[in-house]
Amino acid sequence: MDLGISGRTALVCAASKGLGKACALALAREGVQVTIAARGEATLKATAEEISTLTGQPVAVVAADVTTAAGHDAVLAACPNPDILINNAGGPPPGHYQDWRREDWIAALDANMLTPIELIRRTVPGMVQRGFGRIVNITSSAVKDPISVLGLSNGARAGLTGFVAGLARELAPTGVTINNLLPGPFDTDRIRKVVEARAKKEGRPFEEMWQLRMKESPMHRVGAPEEFGAACAFICSSLSGYMTGQNILLDGGAYRGTF
Hints:
Helix content: 40-55%
Oligomer: single chain
Mean pLDDT: 95
Strand order of the largest sheet: 3-2-1-4-5-6-7
Protein backbone atom coordinates (compact mmCIF):
# COMPACT_ATOMS: atom_id res chain seq x y z
CA MET A 1 0.00 0.00 0.00
CA ASP A 2 1.33 3.42 -0.98
CA LEU A 3 0.75 5.71 1.99
CA GLY A 4 1.26 8.82 -0.12
CA ILE A 5 3.85 10.51 2.09
CA SER A 6 7.06 9.97 0.13
CA GLY A 7 9.08 13.19 0.18
CA ARG A 8 7.42 14.50 3.33
CA THR A 9 9.54 15.47 6.34
CA ALA A 10 9.18 14.05 9.83
CA LEU A 11 10.57 14.82 13.27
CA VAL A 12 10.52 11.78 15.55
CA CYS A 13 11.36 12.30 19.22
CA ALA A 14 12.98 9.72 21.50
CA ALA A 15 13.80 7.68 18.43
CA SER A 16 17.15 6.07 19.21
CA LYS A 17 15.41 2.88 20.34
CA GLY A 18 12.07 1.32 21.20
CA LEU A 19 8.80 2.58 19.77
CA GLY A 20 10.22 5.87 18.54
CA LYS A 21 12.81 4.02 16.49
CA ALA A 22 10.12 1.73 15.09
CA CYS A 23 8.09 4.75 13.96
CA ALA A 24 11.12 6.39 12.35
CA LEU A 25 11.96 3.20 10.48
CA ALA A 26 8.41 2.74 9.22
CA LEU A 27 8.25 6.34 7.99
CA ALA A 28 11.64 6.10 6.28
CA ARG A 29 10.45 2.97 4.46
CA GLU A 30 7.65 5.13 3.03
CA GLY A 31 10.17 7.60 1.62
CA VAL A 32 9.81 10.18 4.38
CA GLN A 33 12.83 12.37 5.16
CA VAL A 34 13.26 11.62 8.85
CA THR A 35 15.03 13.53 11.59
CA ILE A 36 15.43 11.56 14.81
CA ALA A 37 16.10 13.03 18.23
CA ALA A 38 17.29 11.53 21.51
CA ARG A 39 19.74 12.32 24.30
CA GLY A 40 22.35 9.62 23.68
CA GLU A 41 24.37 10.70 20.66
CA ALA A 42 26.21 7.41 20.08
CA THR A 43 23.06 5.29 20.11
CA LEU A 44 21.24 7.89 18.03
CA LYS A 45 23.89 7.84 15.30
CA ALA A 46 23.93 4.05 15.26
CA THR A 47 20.15 4.01 14.86
CA ALA A 48 20.31 6.52 12.02
CA GLU A 49 22.87 4.38 10.21
CA GLU A 50 20.74 1.27 10.72
CA ILE A 51 17.58 2.94 9.38
CA SER A 52 19.46 4.38 6.43
CA THR A 53 20.95 0.99 5.58
CA LEU A 54 17.55 -0.71 5.75
CA THR A 55 15.65 1.91 3.77
CA GLY A 56 18.16 3.71 1.58
CA GLN A 57 16.93 6.99 3.06
CA PRO A 58 19.27 9.55 4.66
CA VAL A 59 18.40 10.12 8.32
CA ALA A 60 19.29 13.34 10.15
CA VAL A 61 20.05 13.28 13.87
CA VAL A 62 19.92 15.79 16.71
CA ALA A 63 21.21 14.88 20.15
CA ALA A 64 19.15 16.83 22.66
CA ASP A 65 17.00 16.46 25.75
CA VAL A 66 13.63 17.15 24.19
CA THR A 67 12.04 17.73 27.61
CA THR A 68 13.91 21.03 28.01
CA ALA A 69 13.53 24.44 26.37
CA ALA A 70 17.02 24.11 24.87
CA GLY A 71 16.01 20.72 23.51
CA HIS A 72 12.89 22.18 21.88
CA ASP A 73 15.04 24.77 20.12
CA ALA A 74 17.60 22.17 19.03
CA VAL A 75 15.17 19.73 17.46
CA LEU A 76 13.27 22.45 15.64
CA ALA A 77 16.49 23.99 14.38
CA ALA A 78 17.36 20.58 12.92
CA CYS A 79 13.87 20.07 11.44
CA PRO A 80 12.12 23.45 11.41
CA ASN A 81 9.15 22.63 9.16
CA PRO A 82 8.09 19.02 9.65
CA ASP A 83 5.03 17.70 7.89
CA ILE A 84 4.91 14.92 10.48
CA LEU A 85 5.62 15.22 14.19
CA ILE A 86 5.92 12.17 16.43
CA ASN A 87 5.91 13.24 20.06
CA ASN A 88 7.51 10.69 22.33
CA ALA A 89 9.38 10.69 25.62
CA GLY A 90 10.26 8.07 28.17
CA GLY A 91 7.69 7.71 30.89
CA PRO A 92 8.32 8.69 34.51
CA PRO A 93 9.60 5.95 36.82
CA PRO A 94 7.10 3.71 38.58
CA GLY A 95 6.50 4.23 42.25
CA HIS A 96 4.00 5.00 45.00
CA TYR A 97 1.96 8.18 45.22
CA GLN A 98 3.09 8.85 48.80
CA ASP A 99 6.69 9.11 47.60
CA TRP A 100 6.09 11.59 44.76
CA ARG A 101 6.86 15.22 45.48
CA ARG A 102 6.16 18.37 43.52
CA GLU A 103 9.42 18.12 41.59
CA ASP A 104 8.50 14.60 40.46
CA TRP A 105 5.19 15.84 39.09
CA ILE A 106 6.80 18.81 37.36
CA ALA A 107 9.33 16.50 35.66
CA ALA A 108 6.53 14.20 34.52
CA LEU A 109 4.50 17.10 33.16
CA ASP A 110 7.51 18.59 31.36
CA ALA A 111 8.30 15.30 29.63
CA ASN A 112 4.88 13.87 28.87
CA MET A 113 2.54 16.86 28.60
CA LEU A 114 4.23 20.25 28.25
CA THR A 115 6.93 19.24 25.75
CA PRO A 116 4.47 17.72 23.26
CA ILE A 117 2.25 20.78 23.62
CA GLU A 118 5.18 23.12 22.95
CA LEU A 119 6.32 21.20 19.87
CA ILE A 120 2.74 21.15 18.59
CA ARG A 121 2.45 24.89 19.18
CA ARG A 122 5.59 25.63 17.21
CA THR A 123 5.02 23.27 14.26
CA VAL A 124 1.28 23.56 13.62
CA PRO A 125 1.34 27.02 11.94
CA GLY A 126 3.60 25.75 9.16
CA MET A 127 1.49 22.63 8.72
CA VAL A 128 -1.67 24.74 8.43
CA GLN A 129 0.00 27.00 5.88
CA ARG A 130 1.01 24.00 3.76
CA GLY A 131 -2.40 22.35 4.15
CA PHE A 132 -1.01 19.07 5.49
CA GLY A 133 0.13 17.90 8.88
CA ARG A 134 0.16 14.72 10.90
CA ILE A 135 0.88 14.77 14.62
CA VAL A 136 1.03 11.52 16.57
CA ASN A 137 1.55 11.54 20.32
CA ILE A 138 2.84 8.29 21.74
CA THR A 139 1.13 8.13 25.13
CA SER A 140 0.14 4.94 26.96
CA SER A 141 -2.67 2.45 27.38
CA ALA A 142 -2.66 3.68 30.99
CA VAL A 143 -4.59 6.73 29.77
CA LYS A 144 -7.61 4.44 29.41
CA ASP A 145 -6.65 1.71 31.86
CA PRO A 146 -4.57 3.30 34.67
CA ILE A 147 -1.73 1.41 36.30
CA SER A 148 -1.29 2.40 39.94
CA VAL A 149 2.51 2.30 39.99
CA LEU A 150 2.55 4.59 36.94
CA GLY A 151 0.57 7.40 38.53
CA LEU A 152 2.95 10.10 37.27
CA SER A 153 2.48 8.87 33.73
CA ASN A 154 -1.29 8.42 34.16
CA GLY A 155 -1.68 12.04 35.20
CA ALA A 156 0.67 13.74 32.73
CA ARG A 157 -0.46 11.78 29.69
CA ALA A 158 -4.13 12.23 30.55
CA GLY A 159 -3.50 15.98 30.63
CA LEU A 160 -2.02 15.87 27.12
CA THR A 161 -4.98 13.79 25.96
CA GLY A 162 -7.42 16.43 27.18
CA PHE A 163 -5.52 19.20 25.41
CA VAL A 164 -5.40 17.28 22.13
CA ALA A 165 -9.12 16.52 22.27
CA GLY A 166 -9.93 20.20 21.89
CA LEU A 167 -7.15 21.27 19.52
CA ALA A 168 -7.69 18.40 17.07
CA ARG A 169 -11.24 19.59 16.39
CA GLU A 170 -10.10 23.18 15.98
CA LEU A 171 -7.55 22.13 13.37
CA ALA A 172 -9.80 19.60 11.62
CA PRO A 173 -10.69 21.84 8.62
CA THR A 174 -7.03 22.70 7.92
CA GLY A 175 -5.65 19.33 6.79
CA VAL A 176 -3.75 18.90 10.07
CA THR A 177 -4.65 15.90 12.23
CA ILE A 178 -3.62 15.03 15.77
CA ASN A 179 -4.02 11.53 17.17
CA ASN A 180 -2.68 9.62 20.13
CA LEU A 181 -1.24 6.11 19.94
CA LEU A 182 -1.66 4.25 23.23
CA PRO A 183 0.80 1.34 23.49
CA GLY A 184 0.23 -1.50 25.84
CA PRO A 185 3.05 -3.96 26.52
CA PHE A 186 5.67 -3.91 23.77
CA ASP A 187 9.07 -5.53 23.72
CA THR A 188 11.00 -2.49 24.98
CA ASP A 189 13.07 -1.53 28.00
CA ARG A 190 10.04 0.23 29.48
CA ILE A 191 7.95 -2.87 30.06
CA ARG A 192 10.86 -4.63 31.75
CA LYS A 193 11.18 -1.75 34.21
CA VAL A 194 7.47 -1.95 34.98
CA VAL A 195 7.65 -5.71 35.54
CA GLU A 196 10.76 -5.28 37.69
CA ALA A 197 8.88 -2.76 39.87
CA ARG A 198 5.96 -5.14 40.20
CA ALA A 199 8.25 -8.05 41.08
CA LYS A 200 9.97 -5.95 43.74
CA LYS A 201 6.63 -4.83 45.18
CA GLU A 202 5.36 -8.39 45.44
CA GLY A 203 8.69 -9.94 46.44
CA ARG A 204 8.74 -12.39 43.55
CA PRO A 205 11.40 -13.27 40.95
CA PHE A 206 11.46 -11.19 37.79
CA GLU A 207 11.19 -14.20 35.46
CA GLU A 208 8.11 -15.44 37.30
CA MET A 209 6.46 -12.04 36.99
CA TRP A 210 7.47 -11.78 33.33
CA GLN A 211 5.76 -15.06 32.49
CA LEU A 212 2.71 -13.97 34.44
CA ARG A 213 2.65 -10.73 32.49
CA MET A 214 2.62 -12.68 29.23
CA LYS A 215 -0.28 -14.82 30.44
CA GLU A 216 -2.25 -11.70 31.38
CA SER A 217 -2.31 -10.62 27.74
CA PRO A 218 -5.12 -12.07 25.61
CA MET A 219 -2.47 -12.79 22.98
CA HIS A 220 -0.05 -14.29 25.53
CA ARG A 221 2.74 -12.11 24.19
CA VAL A 222 3.99 -8.55 24.04
CA GLY A 223 3.80 -6.49 20.89
CA ALA A 224 6.62 -6.18 18.38
CA PRO A 225 7.87 -2.61 17.85
CA GLU A 226 7.47 -3.12 14.09
CA GLU A 227 3.73 -3.54 14.61
CA PHE A 228 3.60 -0.21 16.40
CA GLY A 229 5.68 1.54 13.73
CA ALA A 230 3.39 0.31 10.96
CA ALA A 231 0.32 1.66 12.76
CA CYS A 232 2.04 4.99 13.28
CA ALA A 233 2.99 5.26 9.61
CA PHE A 234 -0.60 4.66 8.54
CA ILE A 235 -1.91 7.37 10.86
CA CYS A 236 0.66 9.72 9.27
CA SER A 237 -0.40 8.79 5.76
CA SER A 238 -2.38 10.75 3.19
CA LEU A 239 -5.04 8.05 3.55
CA SER A 240 -5.85 8.90 7.17
CA GLY A 241 -7.02 12.48 6.72
CA TYR A 242 -10.48 11.74 8.17
CA MET A 243 -9.06 10.48 11.46
CA THR A 244 -8.33 13.05 14.14
CA GLY A 245 -8.64 13.47 17.89
CA GLN A 246 -8.54 9.72 18.43
CA ASN A 247 -6.93 7.60 21.13
CA ILE A 248 -5.89 4.41 19.42
CA LEU A 249 -5.06 1.45 21.63
CA LEU A 250 -2.39 -1.02 20.58
CA ASP A 251 -2.43 -3.42 23.49
CA GLY A 252 -3.20 -6.88 22.13
CA GLY A 253 -6.77 -6.67 23.44
CA ALA A 254 -5.75 -6.10 27.06
CA TYR A 255 -8.23 -3.28 27.67
CA ARG A 256 -11.53 -4.95 28.53
CA GLY A 257 -13.84 -1.96 28.11
CA THR A 258 -16.49 -1.82 25.41
CA PHE A 259 -15.62 1.78 24.55
